[in-house]
Amino acid sequence: MKNMKDTIRIMTAAAALLGAHAAHAQSWTYSPSPTPRISHPDTWVFEVSANGNNLTVTNCLAAPTAPGVLPFVDPVGGGYRIVGITGAMREGGVLGERHERAASLTLPDTLTDIGEYAFCGCLSLSGILVIPPGVTSIGGRAFYDTGLTGITTPSSGVTFGGGAFAENPFLDTVYYIDGYPASVEEDLYEGSEGVTSYVLPANAPDWDPHVGDGPIAEGLATWLGQPISSRISWTFSDPTLSAPRITHPLGWVFAVTVNGADLTVTNCLASPPIPGPGPLPFADPVGDGSYRIVGIPGTGGTAGVLGAHALKVDFLTLPDALTAIGNYAFYSCTALKGDLAIPDAVTAIGDMAFANTRLSEIVVPSTGLSLGDAAFAYNPSLMTVLYTGAYPDFVGTDLYLNSYSSVSFIMSSHEASWTPHVTSPPISSGGAAWQGRTIALYGWGFADSPPRIIHPLGWVFAVTVSGNFLTVTDCLAAPATPGPLP
C-alpha cells in the first residue's frame, strides 16, 4: 500500500463489500417472457440470454434509486446460473445509463466470462473486487475507468483483453492467484499509473520469464510497465478506528486487538468468497512489517478463532512473531490437513487448540512450552509430532486422546530431558511411550555391512551408497503395526 490512508480505504471497502454480501442472503428470479430477465429484491432487473440453465447478463433494465451493492453473487432461483456478463461495447457497460447505481460488486462462482466493456465507465464502483476462480476470459475494457482500488483475480488459463484494467485512477493493487495468463494485452494497465501486480511466491517462477528486471523475488521486477511483487501481505486498519482488523487479498478478514505494534487475532469476520477451503496465510507480513501477529486466542466455541468459517481453511501457516495459541484456537477445523510448523517463539498452546483437525504432521518448539489439555486430540490423520527442543514446562492431560496413529519424535540431543517422563525407556529403543503413544528419536541410523538405514520405529531399508548419497532400494523390516514412514 502507498500509505496508511490507502490501507484504511482498501480495508474499509473490502470489509463493507464482504459484509454486504453476507447480509443479502437473497436470490434472483428468472422470468423467460416477455423478454428473458432476472430480477432481485433490491430492485435490480437485468435482461439475459439463456442457454439451457446458463444465463448471460446483457443489459440493465432497472436499478435501485440509491447506489448500493450489485449482488450477482446471489443465486438465481429455479436452478439457473449466471455464467457470463457482457457490456454491449458502450459507456457504462452492462449497466448503461444506470452505471452510477453500483457502488460495489459481487460475482458468482459460476461465472466464466466477463465480456468487453462489461463495467466500463462505472466510476461509482469502488473497493476491492474478487473475480471468481472459474473465470477464463476478461474482455477488453471490462473494468476500464472505474473507482476500484483493488482486484483479486485468477490468472492461469485466463485471457485478459486490451485495457481490461486501464484508466483506473485509484487502482493500486491487482493480485493474481495462480500461474501466468493464457494471454494478456500490453495495454492492460494503460493509464492506471499507480498499480502494482502481486503474485504468490510459489507462482513467481511461472511469471519470471515474462517480467523485466526480474526475478520477481528480488523486488525490482516490472510487468507491463508497472511494478510486480511476490510479497503478499495483510493490510491493517488504523488502530484509532473503532474496529481494527486485518484483511488479506485472498479474502480473509479478522478482527484484532492492538498493543503498540503487536496484534492479537480475535475473530474471523470473512473468508474467501470462493467454494471450498483454501490456505490461511497468517505467516504473510502485516503491511510493511510495522505490525506483527503475536497471539491467536480461541473463543472457546466450536470452531475457535474461525467460528462459522472453520471449514474454509485447508492449509495454515503461522507468523514467526507468534507467542501464544489459545484454547480451542483451531478446534474442529476439519478441512485443515497436511503439515503445520509452529513457530519457535510460541510458548503456549491452549487446551484443544488443534483438536479435531485432519493435520498429518506437526512440528513443535517444546523448550519452555506450555502444552494444554487435549491440544492434539481427535486427529485421525495425525501421524507425526516432532518436538524440536527439551521437555516442555507443562503438558496437560489427554494430549493425543483418540489420535490413535500419533507418534512423537524428539531430537537425540534432548533425550536426557525427556527420558524421566516416558515409560519403557530408553527412547532410542523405539519401544518407549509418552502420553499413551510411541515416542522415538528423530532420524535414521546407518549401517554399512550390508548398507542399510535403520529407524527407531522399526523400519529398515537396504540402500546403495555413492559418497554421502544414499538410494533406497528395498524394505527389509517394518513396524508390527501401521504407522508413519518418516
Question: How would you describe this structure to a colleague?
Answer:
This protein has 486 residues and is mainly β. Helices cover 6% and strands 34% of the residues. It contains 3 helices and 38 strands. The strands form 7 sheets. A 9-stranded mixed β-sheet has the order 1-2-3-4-6-8-10-12-14, with no helix packed on it. The protein has a 9-stranded mixed β-sheet with strand order 18-19-20-21-23-25-27-29-31, with helices on one face. The protein has a 6-stranded mixed β-sheet with strand order 9-11-13-15-17-16. A hairpin with a 2-residue loop joins strand 3 and strand 4. It is elongated. The two termini are 43 Å apart. Mean pLDDT is 89; it is low at 1-24.
Stretches with pLDDT under 50, minimum 5 residues: 1-24
Label the overall shape.
Answer: elongated
Span of the ends, CA to CA: 43 Å
For the sheet with most strands, the description reads: 9 strands, mixed
Which strand order do you get reading across the main beta sheet? 1-2-3-4-6-8-10-12-14
**Which band does the percent of strand residues land in?**
25-35%
Instruction: Give the overall pLDDT as a whole number.
Output: 89
**Cα-atom Rg, whole angstroms?**
27 Å
What is the number of E strands? 38
Q: What share of residues is helical?
A: under 10%
| Structural class computed from helices and strand pairing | mainly beta
